User: Fold this.
Amino acid sequence: MLNYTTSEENYIKAIYHLQKVDGMVTTNELAAELQSKPASITDMMKKLKAKKLLNYQPYQGFRLTADGTKVALGIIRRHRLWEFFLAEKLKFTWDEVHEVAEDLEHVSNKKLIDKLDEYLGFPRVDPHGDPIPDANGKIEISKKICITELPVNTISTVASVSDHSSEILELLEHKKIAIGTKVEVKKKFEFDNSMEIKINRQPAITISEQLAKNIFVNYGS
Amino acid sequence: MLNYTTSEENYIKAIYHLQKVDGMVTTNELAAELQSKPASITDMMKKLKAKKLLNYQPYQGFRLTADGTKVALGIIRRHRLWEFFLAEKLKFTWDEVHEVAEDLEHVSNKKLIDKLDEYLGFPRVDPHGDPIPDANGKIEISKKICITELPVNTISTVASVSDHSSEILELLEHKKIAIGTKVEVKKKFEFDNSMEIKINRQPAITISEQLAKNIFVNYGS
DNA sequence: AAATAAATTTAGGCAAATCTAAATTTATTT
DNA sequence: AAATAAATTTAGATTTGCCTAAATTTATTT
Assistant:
């Protein structure tokens, strides 16, 4: 595997994340994501196309090739392993790990990362609940689990709600819980199986067992 | 503390190491150390002088200011803590850690490094026996110990020889042992207190108790 | 003390990564 | 289907870090 500059890696990673939403990524989208200017994007797109990491025709948007996706998954693997290390071993809180991992992810020594993976016990998800690609770039497809199964202090997003009655929707609306909303379980009470959860990083609220049983979240998004 | 580029950090670090030998560092010395050209050195020296990290008068060589030394010790702290981490936690061998640490040392997040230090139990020397500066940049002065006290598999350098007779000099010359030579103890034999040591990473040789007792090495150089 | 050699600096150039402003292409309106 | 707006690309600069080649300064010889 060749080496890429920090700048190239940041572009590749951003394209990978944007691709998941639309199929095609546009110049302006990417400029907004990277907080840079459209002209800079065009420059780099030419370079990445020349390196065969990108399919790109002027004015038509772009997406990663198979090679480009492999590179992206390598960067994401490094990022998420470091996030896990920071949270698990150095006791960083979940909201502090991303920024530090943004720097560490660019140290691309395969042996380092594979040994780190082993040392951490081959974790499957990072502290935000996102899946960690393995040494071959294989990434687990997002699994849905009931929020009652979500480990305490893991961030996830609401994937679906099994009951579709107007009664549950009213309640969800009132509690500001929607598909895609970020949730974090803070406490589970054995007495009545109620739980305290945070919605979009707001102060914790309580939900009943009946409600919790109907909420499914991504475990590995 | 301000941030410096990877390139600036590599210059600062190299000057710090060269300074220990002479007092003043020259352009050619530094170019050789960094495998670059004298003209590049001059360019960077102007930049580091403007940042007040360096005392530099054209044609007169240079040395770090107090500020520059502080920066250097920060880099060396990061480098050696990562080396310790790689050897201790990820089970890298001593000869593999340097290269990887060369990259990791440039991630300069204070909280990361201080938490890493704590996680590792505040180690005082790296796997080569070099001292690790603390969070305030304080570095232990090199202690001399007899090679008989040096732990097995720790790299050190010869600091002095207590006997100055022509007989011992002949023997040292023959075994290629000199001041500054790198040594590593591989085995100690209780029967006659002889030991097997490696000199400059060459195949192990045997030295007698009488010789060993006269060789002093840096422990934390 | 001149002459020569060695070390160092200056001058000018190049590639990467960014930017602004102008030109071009594509999309949207009337 | 023109006209206008939006998105994108091109052209030309700038900064950083590096280089080569020429000029300059310092050190060493004869």
